[in-house]
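FAQ

Q: What does a record look like?
A: Structure on top, sequence underneath. For example:
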C-alpha cells in the first residue's frame, strides 16, 4: 500500500472514531477567530476559551483592539502563555487590518500571512475553519502524529505541512487537521502514546 492509500485509510478510521472533530475555540466573528487562533499558540484551546469571553467583551473588533492599552490587554490574556508578545501582536495585527484591509480579515493565505503574529498554522486554520477554504494547519499534535505514523519524515511543522498536503485531497485538508489533533490529544499523546488501544495501530510505522 502506498502512503496516499494508507493516509486515506487512516483518515477514514479517524473520521469514524471522531465524527465531531472540529475546533474547540469559541468565537463569533472572523476577527474573534483570528484572535483566538493567535492566542492558541503553545497553549490549549481550553485555556484560550477561558480568557476570550472577557477579552471579547471589550476588544471584539479591530478598532477596539488597535486602541487597547497594552498593559490592560496583557492583563486580559495573562493566563495564556507568551502573553506579552501575543498582546503586542494582537494590537499590531488589528492596526494592520484597519490600515490595509478595511478592518476585515482577508480570506487569502498570502494576505493572512502578512498580518503581525500570523504564521502558517494560524493562516491555514483561519482559512479552513473560518472561511471553509482549503487549509491544513500543522501544530505540534499533527506534526507528532503523522511522523509517528510514518506518513511524513520531517523535523519541523512547515516541512510536515508540505509533505502532508501532497498525501491528502485538498477538500479534506481541514478535516484531516482536526482528526490528527483529536487523535494526538486523546491517544497518540506526546509522552506516552496508547498504541494498544489505537484504532490505527495496524497502519502505523511506530506500532510499539
Ligand atoms: S500506534 Fe501508537 S504511535 Fe502509532 S498512531 Fe497509534 S498511538 Fe500513535
Amino acid at each position: 500500500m502506498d502512503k496516499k492509500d494508507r493516509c486515506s485509510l487512516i483518515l477514514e478510521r479517524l473520521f469514524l472514531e471522531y465524527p465531531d472533530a472540529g475546533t474547540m475555540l469559541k468565537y463569533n466573528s472572523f476577527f474573534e477567530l483570528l484572535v483566538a487562533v493567535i492566542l492558541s499558540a503553545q497553549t490549549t484551546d481550553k485555556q484560550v476559551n477561558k480568557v476570550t469571553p472577557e477579552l471579547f467583551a471589550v476588544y471584539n473588533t479591530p478598532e477596539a483592539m488597535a486602541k487597547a492599552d497594552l498593559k490592560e490587554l496583557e492583563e486580559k490574556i495573562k493566563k495564556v502563555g507568551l502573553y506579552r508578545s501575543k498582546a503586542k501582536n494582537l494590537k499590531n495585527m488589528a492596526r494592520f487590518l484597519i490600515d490595509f484591509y478595511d478592518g476585515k480579515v482577508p480570506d487569502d493565505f498570502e494576505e493572512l500571512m502578512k498580518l503581525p503574529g500570523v504564521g502558517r498554522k494560524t493562516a491555514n486554520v483561519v482559512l479552513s475553519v473560518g472561511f471553509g477554504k482549503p487549509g491544513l494547519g500543522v501544530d505540534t499534535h499533527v506534526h507528532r502524529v503523522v511522523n509517528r505514523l510514518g506518513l511524513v519524515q520531517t523535523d519541523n511543522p512547515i516541512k510536515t505541512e508540505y509533505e502532508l498536503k501532497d498525501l491528502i485531497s485538498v477538500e479534506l485538508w481541514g478535516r484531516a487537521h482536526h482528526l490528527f489533533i483529536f487523535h494526538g490529544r486523546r491517544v497518540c499523546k506526546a509522552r506516552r502514546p496508547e498504541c494498544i488501544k489505537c484504532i490505527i495501530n495496524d497502519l502505523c510505522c511506530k506500532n510499539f
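Q: Is there anything notable about this one?
A: Residues 136 and 174 are 5 Å apart (CA to CA).
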